[in-house]
Amino acid sequence: MSSATNKILLLFLCVMNFQSVAQIEFTTYTKDNGLPSSNVLFTKIDNKGIIWAATTSGITAFTGKEWVQVKSISDNKGYNKNLGRVSRIFEATNGHIWVVTDKGLFIFNGGYWTFFHESDNDGFDITNIFEDRRGWIWVMLEKSTSLKDISDLGFSLREGKIQMFNGWQWFNYPTEIGGSAAVTIGDPMEYFTSHLQDTKGNIWITSLDGLYKFDSIVWVEFNEEELPSDKCYKVLETSNNEIWVATQYGIAKQSRDEWIKYDKLKGLKGNLIYDLLEDQEQRLWAITRKDSRFKSLCVYENGKWKAYFKDNIKIKGNIIQLSDFEDQLIAFSKKGVSAYDGKNWINLVKKFDIEDDDFICLTPAKNKTLWFAAQKGLYNLSDKGIQITYSPEQGWRVTSIFESVNGKIWVGTEKNGVYIISGAESKNYTSENGLNDNHIIEIFEDKQMNIWVVTKTGISRFQ
After folding, report:
1. CA 252 to CA 243: how far, in whole Å?
2. How far is the first Cα of the chain from the last one, in angstroms, to the nearest whole number?
3. 3-class DSSP state for residue 8?
4. Strands ordered across the beta sheet of 67-70
5. SS3 letters for 190-254?
6. Of 114, 116, 216, 263, which residue is 20 to 30 A from 275 by alpha carbon distance?
7. Residue 353 and residue 357: Cα distance in Å, rounded?
8. Could you report the per-residue pLDDT of 163-197, keeping only the tens digit for each?
9. Phi, psi for 311 (deg, rounded to 5)
């Protein structure tokens, strides 16, 4: 661990208060006026209201008046360390900002930067960071081992390991958790697939080589002796404190320190269980697939499994999202939207005569509403059913949907800029009237109720 200080960012902390600017609609920022790179990957607003933008050439923070770049830091020997391409920004509960890049892990504590790197991590990428209720930070690292003639072999090797920082010391777990696994092309490629902290404080982690539990002292591994398969894809704690695990060949439930396995012989339909969801009625849902395609949606209720297939769900295409909406479960795919009322599935697209296709961006909003888009328009799903809210003059491909504090709906598109929709009124902004680019990546709102539009070549602020 080496320490570093960034003088520019220290100056920025002195001017954190946001200031008013001239009353214009869009203020655009690119590499020419503040960003370290015009290629903005994503953004994050921290608890202080500071906007952090990740780019391909470092990170930048908005002071309320200007962007302050952090492209490199100086270590305690006077050498500069470039940040490089930023892949994650994480804020801990103590306010520290953790920045993951292709060069390593950078941490800003509000006063200075530190850089963390171990030679043993060379060739590994940080794929996830999470914080438990004790304030410990967990870092997951993965290494992809490329094989020659991979197209002929049909599989690749994945390798992973975990480190933990308890606030003053790093801990490595090379033998307790981690390892390698062969992955068939088309299967989930991440070595570490999910994690949670249960109500007792235990850390659970699933991987392609087993399920692991950490009780703050020791690790316990569960594999094929307790589970249907050691390739695990999801761990879930239900409302009655049972631990459920989705694997390649079925599901396992831990109840009173005993494991119960569920597979095809016990009602499951499909080989690979890749997601689990508990709805408001305490029903457990499992999405299964075969050969990278949706196979079935199975529900566990009253001690039994029941399977629904595409014909039962009345939906086409792979289910890409399940949403617990009011007293219904919504199944969403690019080809349709269906609702489960506790007994039957209803095709909402057909019921409300929606003649559209290529559905995208199922987004929860205020007033018990879900928004989604398709080629011909923007749709609103509420207790009144599906209603079309806006139809563009020409076809669009939506990339994001965002509802602002004042209730306006912002729709970002791939080629047509951004649309602002408020009731019967709408307005389209493109590069011809304010935006720097018509390809919208992200839309968000800051604490001063300014709307920010991240495009393919920069960031625009709407006031």
Report:
1. 8
2. 42
3. helix
4. 40-45, 51-55, 58-62, 67-70
5. CCEEEEEECCCCCEEEEECCEEEEECCCCEEEECCCCCCCCCEEEEEECCCCCEEEEECCEEEEE
6. 216
7. 12
8. 999 999 999 988 788 777 777 666 667 889 999 99
9. -65, -35
